[in-house]
Specification:
single chain, about 190 residues, alpha/beta, Rossmann fold, four-stranded mixed beta sheet, 9 strands, globular, binds guanosine-5'-monophosphate
Length: about 190
């Protein structure tokens, strides 16, 4: 080994169509691979039951979110169902310069922004086993009116078509398998170093 700065860590972005289960894969990854460094996004949406500020998200108001955008403190950002989401830039850059592999779980527009600013990032597309399966999840989510469901399905079709803009595809047919595959792609061992 030569001395000097560590080789930079690699940035991996997990994205995919809305409703495909990115959040579930990351929740399982947190349990099975707690040593993986996962970026904590800021969001203006309200915490769901069980979510802790600073763990799943940093929960902020719109004024604070706008300030973060204006001062360039977000690596990427997007809006989703009326709420804003973004990735704080500094913690990600700090980890990467010290050689730590970093994982972001963000929507597809966010993934495009990361591709534009960090071309070396590894973009992972989480795909449903079939389009029908994704449609079932989107329709089965609640009691929304048919017009809203149609909007979701149209969006899902567009998002599925973007799969070839990604470097790797993981099919979410089993959440634990998908989480393990993601960790393997990040090039980290599946157990913490002793
Ligand atoms: P949820 O509110 O269900 O946790 O997340 C809603 C959507 O926002 C998901 O598609 C999730 O991937 C996306 N998301 C979460 N954090 C970020 C972020 O920092 N940036 C972007 N662009 N999307 C995010």
């Amino acid at each position: 080994m030569t001395s000097g700065s560590p080789a930079p860590g690699r940035l991996t972005v997990l994205s995919g169509p809305s409703g495909v289960g990115k959040g579930s894969v990351v929740a399982v990854l947190r349990e099975r691979h707690p040593h993986v460094w996962l970026s904590v996004s800021v969001t203006t949406r309200r915490p769901r039951p069980g979510e802790r500020d600073g763990v799943e998200y940093h929960f902020v108001d719109q004024a604070e979110f706008d300030r973060l955008v204006e001062t360039g403190e977000l690596l990427e950002h997007d809006a989703h169902l009326g709420a804003s989401y973004g990735t704080p830039r500094r913690p990600v850059e700090e980890q990467l310069t010290t050689g730590v592999p970093v994982l972001l779980e963000i929507d597809m527009e966010g993934a495009r922004q990361v591709r534009a600013t960090m071309p070396d990032a590894q973009l992972v597309f989480l795909a449903p086993p079939t389009f029908d399966e994704l449609a079932r999840r989107l329709v089965g989510r609640g009691t929304e009116d048919p017009a809203k469901v149609r909007v979701r399905l149209d969006r899902a079709r567009i998002e599925m078509a973007a799969e070839d803009q990604f470097d790797v595809v993981i099919v979410n047919d089993d959440v634990e398998r998908a989480a393990d595959a993601l960790v393997a792609l990040m090039g980290i061992s599946s157990t913490p170093e002793q």
